[in-house]
Amino acid sequence: MSKRGIPAWWPRWRRFKDRATTAAIATGGSVVLLTIVLLFFFLVYEVTPLLREASATPMAPLEWPVSDSRWLSLDDYGDVAFQVSSDGTVGFTRLEDAKVLSRRELAPSKAALTTVAGEGAGSGALMLGFSDGSSRVIEPSYHYELTAPERRIQPVLGHPLGDLLLAGSKPVALSAVALDLHAGWLARQYADGQLELQRLGESVAERIDLGSQAPAKHLFLMDAGRWLVLLTEAGDYRVWPLSEGVIAEPVQGRLFADSDRLEAASVLQGGLSLIAASSAGHLNRYYVLQHGAVALGQRFDSGGARLHRLLPEPRRRGFLGFGDGVVQWHNAISGQRGLTADFGITSGAVLALSPRADLLVALDEAGALRRWSLDNPHPEVSLRSLWQEVWYEGYEAPALVYQSSASSNDYEPKFSLTPLAFGTLKAAFYAMVFAAPLAICGAIYTAFFMSPALRRRVKPLVELMEALPTVILGFLAGLWLAPLVEDHLADLITVLLVLPGGVLVFSLCWALLPASWRERMPAGWHAVVLLPVLLALVWLGLELGGSVESVLFDGDARRWFAQELGLAYDQRNAIVVGIAMGFAVIPTIFSIAEDAIYSVPRHLADGSLALGATPWQTLTGVVLPTASPGVFSALMIGFGRALGETMIVLMATGNTPIMEFNPFEGLRSLAANIAVEVPEAEVQSTHYRILFLAAFVLFLFTFVLNSLAELVRQRLRSRYGTL
Amino acid sequence: MRSQTVNAPGRGVSHLLRRGEPLVWLNAAAVSFSILAVLGLLVLLAWQGLGYFWPHALSLYQLKESGEIVLAEQVAVQQVPREQLLAAGYEIPGSGPQLERLLLKRGNRDVTGTDFVWVLRNELMAPTAPPGAVRVEREEWGNLYGFLEAVLEDDVVVASAKDSAAATWERFQTQLERARRVRSDIRDLERGELRATSQALEQLRRRGRGAAAEAIELEGAYERALRRLTALYSESARHRYQIRLADGQQLVLPLGQVVRAIQPNQMDVVDKLNYYRVRLWEFLSAEPREANTEGGVYPAIFGTVLMVVLMSIIVTPFGVLAAVFLHEVAEQGRLTRVFRAAVNNLAGVPSIVYGIFGLGFFVYGMGGEIDRLFYKDALPSPTYGTPGIMWASLTLALLTLPVVIVATEEGLARIPRAVREGSLALGATRAETLWRVVLPMASPAMMTGVILAVARAAGEVAPLMLVGVVKLAPTLPVDGVFPYLHLEQKFMHLGFHIYDVGFQSPNIEAARPLVYATALLLVVIIALLNFAAVTLRNRLRERYASLEAG
After folding, report:
1. Angstrom distance (rounded) from CA A77 to CA A357
2. Alpha-carbon gap: B533 to the closest alpha carbon of chain A (Å)
């Protein structure tokens, strides 16, 4: 149909109008269709940053005014550096122009700084130990004035324990210190090996002598002051449990096998686990177990590099490892190495990482401050941490856990999608167990046996079921069905047993009726005859329920399942979801399967019947094999719908992300998880993107199922065409 | 193929099995079961939902042991196994393996703390139905059950049940009518004049003209309205009533808090029907009270309808455009097949995926951009960059787009080729054929598509939870303040109302009947919409049957 019908003398505006309309429709239509494609790409766009590699960009180096540094830390924005020099002076320096903002001498006269240790993963207070046995606790902090267009920073040197020297118990140089102000502990070791613990708090600062110990390479207070951990250069550890009042004997052991020595160690953010690198190139994470024993958690892939410095991220479970000519960026949750590079940092350089882990600075012996801008937005997510077991802090063994809403930063986010995908499949499975037989059998009967007059009424009724809002099904399942099933579990089981059996018995009785009676039923009216029968059978099942419960289940079905089969019972469980969601997918499956069976060319069935086969033989031998792809695609579309259903699962399960296939326990599905958590997720955060990933997974699940079903149906249609 | 002898007529059981007769019955049972389940569900909703508005009798229950008296409505009866109660540590008189347990609504939440109690039938004396028992529905604290003693005006008893119970009741009702008028005046004043003047004032101040003559005039109007309000409040506070609870406690409460009061034990069927009508109308036309567990669902109906209307305004042109493009304009090749498959596929994508897309793309993406461009001074508090009715409608429009496209394409495909070619042969351009012939003929199909889309959208909740629905919206998205339709506002929705009241409500027992009623309302709306779609489709088919035949 082209411009054939338009003679040349027609006014030009008509032609113009014609063309304009076509163009407008083409543009508009394509835009609408492209919007649909946009849905897919937007999901991908939101998800891809999760898997982005870490990157580092070198920035211009600075001539640093203060060299000879022992300790360096940065403020939140990476604008100001705090520095502790070997002579005990501390000061703030602006990075922009290397201007010294303030300086102060802190060491006692005639004493030098011998050791420095920070609290936790590098932010917060730090403790300076001097050569005369005394020490100091200071805390650099920053006041921000965030007035557009610029921010002004006022660095402040705080003194959490007062602006004073803490005298040592003897005039011997300190070799290692550790502090946890929140829990109220200080620990120090003197050069002669004596280890001393000090409890802060009340007026009396009580000191506990822990005797002479091997010299510590690292001294840590971990897990909110529950453990004092001493690591020696040889790779031995000693752990003192610091419970109230009594200090027990230390637990001892080795971190590495054989003669492997400790190169570097650090406590990860949260203070619950420890990272240690060995001279043989091992890089491991350790947990302190219940009684102080140190357990090896996961091993990181250091590529055999010998890392002599570990720098933890102040706000995430990640750390940078520095070896000879190599920098590695690991994340403890994903267990992945996000970055491997050679920054050319000398081994004597002092390092600092900004709290947001977006700036790394290295002050080398020559007094040059080198800077790298870092980017690693979602390091805790990797394919492994999403789908495989991860050993989280506080867990006895690696596990698949989903727990996004942590009340504080001290807990690891646990983003395993496996329990959610499992829950989704579990809910869909139980729904299909309930729906598939009913829908397929119903479709077979309606399409092949039912009288046409009845079929015209039944089909719309079942399709009306499809229009039933799922929120209503979910509400009924959660508030009506769930308590009912809980109270009448045995009755439900009995009814399920009685119904098919009863129908079979009824059909046998029917066959024994005199022919004149049987012929009163019009052909294809079985379903109507069965309505009262089913009601009677349900009543019978309920009546028998009590006796069945006492005979089969010792009088209490729930207890019996718990004791005999070890199945725990939740009120809102997979059975309830299965029934409710089965209800939602029956019409979908029914409608498509019925169409497939009904549109099997009539002459095939007629031929079979004419050759003497019974209707049932015709059905199983001719019609069903022909229609089976259609029935299959009906099942797939139904399954797809069950996977994505949100409200029923949300309302009829307890939404607990567990990995149990037990039908009497709840579940948490991808869809319900999105509905629950998205409103609270911070935009662009890892959690937010994980939820988009969940949506993307759902999208893929259903996309594959639907495409497959569509393909099968296309094939079927062409097959019917040729028949 | 089986041999003839196998299928020879006969009557044995083995013959029956060969013919598959029992299996046919079993398949038939699946259909019957589905039908029974659908009908059962509808009956359950109707029974629970419609029963809510019926006035139930009030009975006095007395506990045998303690002698405690409760005036209550019986809500539910349950059979409980004796063992279960024994295991829970109850000591039970009487015998029998099953015991009857009653759920009583005793109301008076301000006095008793909880308005529902479970009691065992065994522990109760036979209940009596006192004719004077009163059920008072209040703005706060739920129902009050008791016996009316007196009506007070300025602390003076103006009618007392000691003199005449009937006269007191009458006086109570007339006072109640007056109090209701005062309350509605207060509400009109607060929502109308006071709000409008304070908003106008606020706008003037923001423009730095707080001292202009206009502003002074407005302030005066505001003051006057405020004085009127105070007068109304003090008028409302003058009238009170005294009520005696079942345990003898006497309360004096303000009449202004009373919504409605009845003496259910004295009502005949006509009264009850009347009361039923009033309650039903309240349900449909009033705002919710008491954290959505009492009152009506009017804002939710309004929100649902408005959202659906906005959605159809968006989805109809775009859906039709896409369908016309796919069917009439685009070359029928591989690309159109891919698009068609994509559209079909999209109908199967879970609604929550649309929800999160709407949140990410529309709300944070487009909304955030609109805020940066046009509402800069309001930032960081978002105007459009937060869920709202416009984003909800857009999201649902996207969700229902496949429905409209598929239905419209179906309609276009049904138009006989001869009609189109006839039009072209008569000299019409393609555009004219489209406008004058094809689209009018396909319009019933489009209508069907839109109605189906509306039905789907009305029942969809999951995506809305992300893009704009709230449990309680302080104002409707449409009001008398410019620009009248507030597209950025959040709204209430019937489906979400069911979820929220049913699952997030603090007083679930009290809310349950209301949820059933809301569910029933939603089902009725959606069934009507579907029914309309089916009727339209059938009409359409008849029309083309005649065309094709002719």
Report:
1. 10
2. 11
φ/ψ of A178, rounded to 5, equals: -150, 150
pLDDT, tens digit, for every residue of A164-211?
888 888 888 888 999 888 888 888 899 888 888 888 876 556 778 888
User: Chain B residue with minimal CA distance to A499?
Assistant: B29
pLDDT band per the 50, 70, 90 thresholds, residue B3: very low
Which residue type occupies A284?
N
Cα gap A174→A190, rounded to integer Å:
4
pLDDT at position B1 is 38
From chain B residues 361-400, the ones with a CB under 8 A of any chain A CB are 361, 364, 398
Rounded to the nearest integer, the mean pLDDT of chain A is 85
Give the H or E element holding residue A26: helix A12-47
Taking phi over 0 as left and psi of -120 to 50 as alpha, with beta for the rest, A497 belongs to: alpha
Residues of chain B with C-beta less than 8 angstroms from the C-beta of A675: 352, 355, 462, 465-466
B-contacting residues in A 494-533 (Cβ below 8 Å) = 499-500, 503-504, 506-508, 510-511, 526-531, 533
pLDDT of residue B547: 61
d(CA A223, CA A180): 10
Q: Residue A10 has which token pair?
A: 């027609």
A559 — alpha (psi -120 to 50), left (phi > 0) or beta?
alpha
pLDDT confidence of residue A458: 87
Three-state SS sequence of B401-422: HHHHHHHHHHHHHHCCHHHHHH
Range from A107-121, A610-624, B283-297 that averages highest in pLDDT: A610-624
Residue B329: which of A26, A478, A695 has the nearest Cβ?
A: A26
Three-class secondary structure of residue B330 per DSSP: coil
Report CB contact under 8 Å: A479, B329.
Answer: no
CA distances from A274 to A268, A277, A354, A432 (A): 6, 10, 20, 47
Nearest to B72 by CA among B241, B242, B244, B246: B246
DSSP three-state, residue B27: helix
State residue B550's pLDDT score.
Answer: 41
Q: A307-312 and A294-300: which strand pairing?
A: unpaired
- Residues A674 and A677: their CA atoms lie apart, in Å, by 5
Across the A/B interface, how many CB contacts are shorter than 8 Å?
Answer: 328
Chain A residue numbers touching B357 (CB-CB < 8 A): 39, 42-43, 695
The stretch B346-373 carries a mean pLDDT of 91
Half-sphere exposure of B266 (CA within 13 A, CB side): 13
Angle of helix B298-324 relative to helix B494-504, nearest 10 degrees, comes to 130
Cα-Cα-Cα-Cα torsion A105, A106, A108, A112, nearest 10 degrees, comes to: -90
**Is there a contact between B100 and B81 (Cβ–Cβ < 8 Å)?**
no
pLDDT tens for B230-258 read 988 888 888 888 888 888 888 888 888 88
Is the pLDDT at A6 greater than 70, yes or no? Answer: no
Q: What are the backbone dihedrals phi and psi of residue B134, each rounded to the nearest 5 degrees, phi first?
A: -115, 140
| A596: closest CA of chain B, how far (Å) | 16
pTM over 0.80: yes
**pLDDT tens-digit series, residues B111-163:** 888 888 888 888 888 888 888 888 888 888 888 898 888 888 888 888 888 88
